[in-house]
Design goal:
696 residues, alpha+beta, Rossmann fold, globular
Length: 696
Amino acid sequence: MILNLLRAFWGVFFIFWTAFNTALVDVVGSEQQIPLSVVKLWASAFGGEIKSIAAKYSGSQLLQKKYKEYEKDVSIEEIDGLQLVKKLAKSMEEMFHKKSEAVRRLVEAAEDAHLKHEFDADLQYEYFNAVLINERDEEGNFLELGKEFILVPNDHFNNLPVNISLSDVQVPTNMYNKDPAIVNGVFWSESLNKVFVDNFDRDPSLIWQYFGSAKGFFRQYPGIKWEPDENGVIAFDCRNRKWYIQAATSPKDVVILVDVSGSMKGLRLTIAKQTVSSILDTLGDDDFFNIIAYNEELHYVEPCLNGTLVQADRANKEHFREHLNKLFAKGIGMLDIALNEAFNILSDFNHTGQGSICSQAIMLITDGAVDTYDTIFAKYNWPDRKVRMFTYLIGREAAFADNLKWMACANKGFFTQISTLADVQENVMEYLHVLSRPKVIDQEHDVVWTEAYIDSTLADDQGLVLMTTVAMPVFSKQNETRSKGILLGVVGTDVPVKELLKAIPKYKLGIHGYAFAITNNGYILTHPELRPLYEEGKKRRKPNYSSVDLSEVEWEDRDDVLRNAMVNRKTGKFSMEVKKTVDKGKRVLVMTNDYYYTDIRGTPFSLGVALSRGHGKYFFRGNVTIEEGLHDLEHPDVSLADEWSYCNTDVHPEHHQMAQLEAIKLYLTGKEPLLQCPRSTNEIPGVLLPGADPFG
């Protein structure tokens, strides 16, 4: 058919080209113009022939006839965008709530287990160490902490060998895995195993569940073996992960003061820079910061940002890190000037209402202080002490340690000494536990959700998996420590973004329609134009893939009307003209999109739906009985629209490999009541009628 179509087309084109050349020769010879009427005649003839050929070989008339036969069984309805986005948000809210409840059960179990546990400095306990499990010595005996641990490939975890009955424990390489604090923590947290399993039984769509301890160990379910890198090191420390930091602390405004006086030359300045970098690692998108170097004068690390704070997003932190390398030591350290500046910045920024409006802190990194500067603290911070003071003494000497300790204690902060580069990370983490104290004392079990990030562990056939994490802090309930505000750690579970998309049926969004979600900072959680990798199917990530702003993909929204409304968690509608690429970017369509948006309660996310004007605003609804629908589905030529999900086949293991068409048939016949599918055949409009052209 295609060959006949091409022959007919080229036949018409040849006749047209011959006539054109003949007329052109006549014009050149007689120096006359081609009459407009002749050109119109050619165009009409050419168009008529093309239309005739297209009608003959495309089967459009046959297709119209087929649709006419089924006209009584279908209806065309206009999509109510606002009602649709609210319904989808509600569905997502219910799914998010299930994940939150799983985490809440872990919190309760962990706090109860710790309450019943009494610390034993001599406790001997053999636990499953994730690095050592199944490892044997030269004589064939299992290593200490490396007992036999049964691992079986599981398709729910991308065929990774896991143990769905037990969790195991990872300890960072730089920590002693038999330290009494770790052994005691591992011992009482063993009771989480039964909750892990129970959660997975209740919600088989769950993937990794875990407990990150404030002591540094990481308990993960299902249990899995960890492999060191080529240097024999596992650098992973759960306390550095965003989910841990967000759950452990509240948003904060931070001014970092770095001593660059002459005494800081050499290794001390190197340690100081690394300390600043580690502090930056602990700041998230809800935090604001600035860095000031001082000697006799103040030197803003970024001179363009004098007297203010900036959001601690990835781009800003990397920018400041680059400028840190330009610092050099000379002169005399005038700490009083730096402290005055820091307090003024925090006060002024707080009054603007732009910051975190929560915790405020000054981080002082120096090799000593000759005074306690109590007059400055009395002027700016006492008696309320709203700004916490954290002091880091660089170097082995302790001559000025007392002054720095006093400053920290007098301002509800913390003092620590950093002697070597190896000490940096562990000592920096201490401030997080101090900032968590108000939450612990008030027992504020806030649920936090991270922005989207890539988990390389669960790479699937389409590449690396984009996911978000829900986490909650775990507090000590023991009477002797409750007033001190002791953070035990953080529990969490990962949620693949593709799991969220199952709550959004594509067939309800119309032609060129799509759904998307963003965080409270405007970063994309999911959007069809989000491309986190340099090449599809590869593993090389773009550096800012987790902080792509909505304005970067919906760039026609130049005044950020849509973005700001969603960030402010409003419900409404917005329309604008957009350009959409089709055919893998080969063509561009200009169309008008109507955007409907609302917030997803219980989360920091907002959901949006884009519907294109015209055909995209209408929904094709069937009106057939189950028997009639099954009859159509049994037709040998039936097929489903690609990538449309009607039934959730991920909940129960026996459904994982089931095709959508098979799932629909089993559901409609009542043979698989556990399948989660639409409640009526009217909700399954993507089934193509027998004999219909799938490209029509």
